[in-house]
Design brief:
By secondary structure, the protein is mainly alpha-helical. Helix content is 84%, strand content 0%. It has 19 helices and no strands.
């Protein structure tokens, strides 16, 4: 390759590597950039579907197939975590929201909560778990199984709780989710076949940087109107933001407690995955045809999603250190 071409490729590669090295700081900064620069949201909103597709492709592309097969040979924990995130979460959220009368008092927020609960975990959740020092294999395997089921479970819960709130039928929602996931998986498989798993692993840091750029596209597209909404109705906007944080940390805490018998390190990793719901997938499936209150809630959920990895890193490190100490003690006593 001519030296000028090497230089041209080296500069963006270096920039992406630097960005990937910023880790949780860059992920946290995305939310504030998206709100602070509304014109960026206006510019990038037409590309939100493409951003979601790329995020899915990158996540599928980076799946460790050896670790995946290894965990599938011990299916009890995977099955229970999958059942909780695909069936337990939407069922509990639906019953609580319906029982509180939210479907009548604020249909837009009820729709937002149900779409959030019905969604599969974010494809970036295992990467975020690894980023803060947790073992990402269990969240990754659960993510794969939950994502495979979500077209069917989302269609079921849409029929049970949403009725005619959606602009599309529950069956169409399920088929669209299935199509988006299938195309993303095919694209990721083609990339792995052409490039090779070793090359993907070797370029992990610049891929992380590219992933952060795509996250910025998605967050900007979703959060571009937050500043305007806050000025128009600050009390409602703050209330919705508090609800978004409450839902996030409630899912994290409850899931960690449910799976604590597997060890708090693993349980915390599963809790992180369950609390990070793939709202982008739901936006793509519904083509963004959602009420303003639903859009606002979706936008404000980006704050806990992007800030939590940075805030939770100290907890994750303590849990990891405690788990390592316990394993060392067991190994010492057995020898």
């Amino acid at each position: 390759m001519p030296s000028i071409l090497q230089t041209l490729f080296a500069l963006p590669l270096r920039a992406l590597t630097w960005l990937g090295d910023q880790g949780t700081r860059a992920v946290a900064a995305i939310a504030f950039i998206a709100v602070a620069v509304p014109p960026l949201g206006t510019l990038l909103r037409p590309y939100v579907t493409e951003a979601i597709f790329l995020l899915l492709c990158i996540s599928f592309m980076r799946v460790d197939l050896v670790a995946l097969y290894g965990h599938l040979r011990r299916p009890a924990l995977i099955a229970s975590a999958t059942a909780w995130t695909t069936i337990g979460v939407p069922l509990v959220v639906g019953l609580l929201a319906h029982g509180s009368g939210l479907d009548r008092s604020s249909p837009g927020l009820f729709l937002a909560l149900m779409l959030q609960a019905m969604a599969s975990p974010m494809m970036a959740a295992p990467a975020l778990a690894a980023l803060i020092g947790l073992d990402a294999t269990l969240p990754l395997v659960t993510l794969v199984t939950a994502t495979a089921l979500v077209p069917f479970t989302a269609s079921l819960f849409a029929s049970l709780f949403l009725g005619d709130m959606l602009s599309i039928s529950p069956l169409t929602l399920g088929l669209k989710l299935l199509g988006i996931l299938a195309v993303s998986l095919i694209g990721a498989t083609a990339i792995r076949w052409i490039v090779g798993a070793k090359a993907i692993q070797r370029h992990k840091r610049p891929i992380d940087g590219f992933n952060i750029l795509i996250l910025l596209v998605f967050a900007s597209a979703v959060m571009g109107d937050v500043a305007h909404d806050f000025v128009a109705d600050p009390v409602f906007t703050i209330g919705v933001a508090l609800l978004a944080f409450a839902v996030y940390f409630t899912l994290l805490t409850v899931t960690t407690l449910i799976f604590r018998r597997a060890g708090y390190e693993r349980a915390f990793a599963v809790g992180l995955m369950v609390s990070q719901r793939n709202l982008g997938l739901m936006l793509a499936a519904t083509a963004g045809a959602l009420p303003p209150a639903t859009w606002l809630y979706f936008a404000l959920t980006q704050f806990p999603i992007h800030l939590a990895p940075y805030l939770l890193t100290p907890i994750a490190r303590r849990l990891t250190a405690r788990a390592d100490t316990a394993r060392a003690t067991v190994a010492g006593s057995s020898s």
